[in-house]
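Dear colleague,

Following up on Tuesday's group meeting, I ran the structure prediction for the three-component complex that the binding team flagged. I've pasted the input sequences exactly as they went in, so you can double-check that nothing got truncated or mislabelled along the way. The structure tokens for the whole assembly follow below. Feel free to forward this to whoever is handling the docking comparison.

Inputs:
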Amino acid sequence: MSTSNLHIYVMAVPLLTAFFVNLLGRTSKVWIAPLVVGSLAFSSVASLVLMGRVMTSGGFSYTVGNWVPPYGIELVVDHLSALMLVLISVVALFASVSALKSVEQELPGREHLFFTLYLILIAGLMGLVLTADAFNLYVLLEITSITTYGLIAMGKGRAPLASFNYIIMGSIGACFYLLGVGYLYLMTGTLNMAEISQTLPVIGGGAAVATALAFILVGLWIKMAFFPLHGWLPNAYSLAPTGAALIVAPLMTKVSIYLMVRVMFSVFSIDYLFLQNPLVDAVIVWGAAIAIVCASALALAQKDLKRMLTYIIVAEVGYMVGGAWLANSTGMTGALLHIVNDALMTLCLFLAAAAILYRVGSLDFDKLQGIYRKMPITMAAFTIGAFSMIGVPPTAGFFSKWYLILGGIEGGHWEFVVALLFSSLINAVLFFRIIEIGYFHKDGEHHGHETITEAPLQMQAPLLICAVALIVIGLGSGPLVEKIITLAIPVGL
Amino acid sequence: MKLLQERTQKQQIGQSLIIQTAVRQLVPFVQLFGLYVIVHGHYSPGGGFQGGVILGSSFVMLALAFDQSTSMRLMSERANVMLGNAGVLIFTGVAALCAIVGGLFLDYSALDAIIPLGPVEWRSFGIFLVEVGVGLAVMSIMISLFWDLSSAGEMDEGL
Amino acid sequence: MDDLLAVIVAKYNYWIYVILMMIGFYAMIGKRNLVKKLIGMNIFQTAIILMFVSAGVKHGGKIPILNKYEVLKNGIDATQIVNPLPHVLMLTAIVVSVSITGVALAILLRIYREYGTLEEDEILEKLGK
């Protein structure tokens, strides 16, 4: 075994385990939990080792099958993709420990099917962050999307309808991306990202390349639910089974944002994006500001905890898209740091929601009265996640917002700064409303006659680790930014 | 789906003797052709996906001409799932095996270390192994898709 | 007018793909039956696949199936043979399209079992009650 294949093992182990889960889980359920947790723990450790290796000796590229690129499919492991690998495997590990419990309650008898799709989803996500070939990206994007459609459709009630809606919109997005790649292939004759970026300046701009950029961007925006293309997200994520929402909500949109950053820098150069088309980034930053404001306002109108959280995800996507298109390195640092922070924050909040759902059975606001007394540890972690969303130091959310606001001021995009502050205020209103209902109201008409105790340890443990991680990463933001993220931003920004 | 099933049973669609005899004679040849297409995939048009679809369509033909329980008697649901999983495991297993033995992922010439045949021969043989895996998986998917959809999920009656 | 006609005739294949794409896109958005939306998605994806495949075709090109010994002796003239690389890549895209159709059909079965109908407005009525 050589360590040059380490990133492949990170991706291949969940993929192989998925089929073992399907085969062995049919016979007895005992096999599922150790297989899932074991494979994800191996992936987490391997990706941390890989991150250490990248930090000491720099990034490297790797072709599958030992064919020289562009004949082979190239994989790239640099600081950004190693960081995303660590993020995906750690988030997946925490989510799966909690999902094992909630899937038992919600989908009895079908756990092996659920976890097969789950592990294939995680393998697909890991492949997405590693690839450096435009068509391979489409295939992996569709692999993750198809497993997500299947996972969401396992819910009850309106879930299949919401999943079908997601299928239609998600396929439009992926087809637009494929169309954009098709235009690039027609112009340059190659599908390897590095080669495309070398051939494009030679050809010069022109309508075809601009159309390709437009199609790729719109396709990725549909996938990441950038307002106003977000219509599928609230229904799909709130009606999904809890275990599915735990892994899909923190990761899918963030990986799509990573893909947008990767396409922006590895395929189209900075020169083309920002200098040759000067109005485009201003329009996109305005669009991001409007997205943040509208999504936060929509979040205010919700009466159910999960739907409120999904609208907050849409607003966070607006932060990151705006930050990426601010055209300065502070903004890009903020956007990349926010990818890491937002995944952890969303995971923390959804873990808390899952624990509450496991015990209480519903997430309407009027059922949440007095919940701080019943489940103190869960709600303490929820409060830390809420503070991070609002942007209170020393939690992680404050530092990424700081970078984003600085980048906005530096670039002169005042509308973005105003939208960020407005959204922080609205988040404060939203979360303090929940804290008030949970803490101060007497537990009045509780229809549940059984006593609501604390959530089981299996669901509490990842929640607590996640909340602690939010504070730790917040305090450690300095070294994180210096050592990893600034090396991931290309020069000249 | 229940309406369609009742209608086909009332009108006896596909239940004629000619169709049943013809299908019974044709199915082995179709399967042989499917195997041929899989094996020739790396050298001429064909390959795992195409051959898998042809293999799957042989069982679908049986389910259409006779009824679904005949088809399910010849390939039970459990065997279908096992074959599908085994197919994907062959594919991913060969790929991972290449990485473990020493080369890069999917670098078949590294398998030379296990059974010495020469790296160039191993490349074409490696593709062949992968195609077999893909063909099995695709066959299983085609069969289970048809069974699920034509019986409205219950796997008892068919069209 | 002559100019426009010359442009259309010269690139008639791209115009066909654009028309197919628009038909598929309209079906996805404008039709109310869920199965028709699914077929529209299929048409849309097929049009994109066709566009990719036509990127490799050359005027008067031959099919890329070669006799091995002749090629080893004489070499290949790449300008006379159709490029097979986009064909192979589009095989993968076709597989993706088939999987999405399969998953969507299975989900449609569940929707039908739950609501008894596959028309979008009837389902929304049932939900609204």
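Chain A touches chain B at residues 1-2, 4-5, 8-9, 12, 15-16, 19-20, 22-23, 26, 62-66 (CB under 8 Å).

Cheers,
M.
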